[in-house]
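Data card: per-record layout.
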Amino acid sequence: MEKINALVKKIVINLALACFAFLFLVGCSNEQGGNSNFTQDLYLYPDLDAAGDTEDGSEDDTPQDTTPEIEDTYSIWTDPCVDCAWYFCGSLDVIYQKQICINNCNIPSTVVYEGECEEHLECNPAQHILEANIPCITPEGYPGVKEKICNKGQIQYTNCASECSEEVCDNIDNDCDGDIDEDVLNACGECGDLPEEICDFIDNNCDGQIDEGVANACGGCGKTPEEVCDGIDNDCDGEVDEGQTNACGKCGPLDDEICDGIDNDCDGFIDEDLIDKCSTDCEENLQYCVGGQWICTAKQPLEEVCNGLDDDCDGKADEGLDCLCTQQDIGTLFKCQESPLICGAGYKTCECVDPNDPTCAELQLTECLAVCHWLPQTLSPGTTCDKYLGEIKPEECNNHDDNCNQLTDENLFAGCYSGPPQTMYVGICLPGEMTCLAGTWGNYDDNNQFVKKLCLDEVPPGPEDLCNGTDSNCDGKIDEDKELEPTDILFVVDLSGSMVEEINAVMTALNKFAAHYSDSDVVKWGLVFTASYVPNAWKENVVLQTDLVDFDTFMSIFINSGYSLNGGSEQNYDAIYLAIHNLIGAGGVPYPLADLTWNSSWTTESVPPKEQWNISWREDAKHVIIIFSDEEGQTYLTPSITENILVNMINLADELAVYAFTHHWLIDLGSPNNYEALANAGMGGKVYPLTMKAIEMYNNLLEILDETACGNKAPKPTPTPPPAP
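The structure for this 725-residue chain is written out next.
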């Protein structure tokens, strides 16, 4: 009975194999147009053992397996009777397949080649979505989700999708940061412009003061200034130049060309095509921009003189004047300002209509002539006088062409100083300068707008004398008898292309230090560049530009470094690790430098080679690292340098504090590597906003120096131990 069952089972298997082969031939002929040795179509293949035994282990009378070896497969694949295809491997995962060749000319069809089971696909093609709602960040910086999918057996990821957008004032959390209408509400908690302050015993603009000089949020009068692309927080909302970079290399829309002698729209032309209407009490005409100033061609009102004309354009002629031309008026000069005089004052007098009439019975006013016309003939030889020119005087700030050069109030400057008079030229205090425009003293602000009584470049006394090597409050005492302590300061500067204006601000701020620290050996300065691009080599290096040196040498190296701002791999975490590894005992360094390798997927290296990085930290000095970067902490070393590794190393290092200048959105959006953890470790540092304002950078650097080199930082509180159980 067992033999009968085995025979029946064998017949069934052979019939199934024959049917399968027939269906395979029909399918391939329709789909592939003939023999296909490397088709990617998927087929079910029954699990058959090599010996052909039955399930009960009894022997089978079928011929032994004649499947050729691999070296014979070329003749199989060239045989027109043989079709080869990929089949699933049965109980293994669906990504595993093997190649099977069937001779369809045999009756029934026979398997002539069976390959090894191999990993032919990355994933199950029948399962499209492998993982959904994977958190991600869009290129615009918003949180979103993406999917892990199986596309024809290959693992892929969809683009990061987000419903978040730029925050607008609509009572909705547009940017998905958990806050509603942040940074778009005015000081009164409403949308739109702040109300103007008026004298009504109410704090109209919600600044905590009532009826204060009608001051806006920026301390000026009237409406809060609009933000323009000038490197300054014009609307005082904590953000600088928010918007898009324009053709001038700044963010926001291009400036319109205005009459200021500057190429405002960066098209290579200055004050082009600037024509506008202008009017006076006398007429309406056109005005043209010449040399950065508007020149109005309309007739200007003049002082009324006795000439029978409406000089002041009020509809009346010679009003309020005694214009009787009498015998007594002959030879008396009357001031006048009439065409064709172009400057100064002219004169006229009474004369006889008939010069041959000895009685001078009829009198008339002469034409308006220049003063030189009436002077006696006592001029020096060679001196000439144009009767159509007025009296030439030195230019004054009075909105008049005093020196007769067709310009008004040109090249007029005056000193100014807002501090106490006794502090001028004491310590750092210096006067500034004002210029004249249209009879008014003032100066141009960063928006190129003329501001009345604005004194530029003055240095008034500071609130207190900081420990900066100078008499900052101008009281005649330097640092109020404070002394600098030995301090080593290492700058880590991100040279990526987005840091151009910020690095320039750092350089400007450091230049203000030059006069104060050039002779000091107490404070030493070092410089490290990250994302330092090597032209034509496709490399972005971590560069130890200089070890700790005096300030003059440091500044010379920084200025003349020839850095290239094209990098994108900000290796800030790696730079900190290399810089401080020798401040820590061997037991505190997780990876010796020789065991670290640069990630092969990035063309990142170090100069010098990482094994030679040894900053000359002084044992008797405080140690400070200051980071300048618009990107979060990154690592390109293997093993990776994590935030926790650096925090532990900073805590173990000898008197080490880390400060960071970075974009506020890294802090506001809670970026995981925003340098706050580093700043809180060790001696304790701080995170400052990265800005293009040199004065802010300077003040913040002074604060760092005051906390470290001057020892004015409050001691870090000792953590309270947890209560005993």
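Known properties of this structure: The first helix runs from residue 2 to 31. Confidence is low (pLDDT under 50) at residues 1-71.

See the next section for split statistics.
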